[in-house]
Structure prediction request, 290 residues.
Amino acid sequence: MQVKEILNSGKVTLSFEVFPPKTSDAFEAVDAAVNQIAALRPDFMSVTYGAGGGTSAYTVRIAKDIKEKYGVTSLAHLSCVSSTREQVRGMLDQMKENGIENVLALRGDIPKDATFPLANQYHYASELIEEIRNYAPNLCIGAACYPEGHPESANKAEDIQHLKEKVDAGVDFITTQMFFDNAILHNYLYRIREAGVNVPVCAGIMPVTAASQMKRIFQLSGTYLPARFKSILDRFGGNPAAMKQAGIAYATEQIIDLIANGVDHIHVYTMNKPEIAAQIQANLSEIINL
Ligand code: FAD
Prediction:
């Protein structure tokens, strides 16, 4: 099924994200986690794509398994900044051969040693979206968006303008970067709707269940941390079991507040952890059946 049909069905949706293994040795463990997460019957599952080499080879395979072996709609991520046009088309051919119906079209992070813009390749996700629309017109296309602005953007207005270009190039839905303060999302939704971005939005929620995870997230994206969240880290960060419980509770509360305020599509960054996906889903069992 196409993700856009699910998001346009008028129901509250809950989707989960998984990532492929870095090496073939880890494939079985990832497959087992994917199977357990799929058994929760989310509305769809997305599979990330490694920027260049490594894990990208497994994205299509896992997305195919999610759909065919585990019976859940799947969404394969695809990034373009480290690939030639031929490589991207090769990946789109693979998607077609494997019955993939949905793709999240991304630029990817620019490799540290690269001069940007790269010659004869894609510079921005909007170019990949145009390519997919022309080369694989049957795919349902999603794109990424950034409620706090993408780190490379001079300001949010410019970033929203570029988001509009992506949507105009043929995007069916967008998924947000994680955020920990719902007011940031509500403000962003107002601004993107005002800018003419009218496709469904999946709100990306990251359950932070270990203090070390937060340190990494903060270093990578500089995401705003509300005082309430900092207190949780201060008080429970040194106790893994307590931190996990508090992190799941925080993510649950964030989701309930979003749904209560009309944000109907929730995408959880489950990080290949079935127990976290299961607990969040159990906490929402009546709420997501709306
Ligand atoms: P773009 O939309 O191309 O934007 C990148 C920057 O360029 C922004 O600052 C934008 O404002 C600016 N820009 C866009 N167009 C123009 C223009 N014409 N002129 C000037 N500036 C412009 N990465 C992976 O490698 N694999 C994944 O699986 C993956 N999944 C993700 C899922 C989600 C939901 C999100 C939010 C991010 C994901 N990422 C993933 C990270 C993503 O690849 C990086 O954030 C990357 O730096 C930007 O990708 P993009 O598709 O948003 O790029």
Notes: The mean pLDDT is 94. The radius of gyration is 18 Å. The first strand starts at residue 13 and ends at 18. The pocket of flavin-adenine dinucleotide is lined by residues 48-49, 51, 77, 79, 106-109, 124-126, 144, 150, 152-153, 159, 162, 166, 175, 177, 204 (CB under 6 Å).
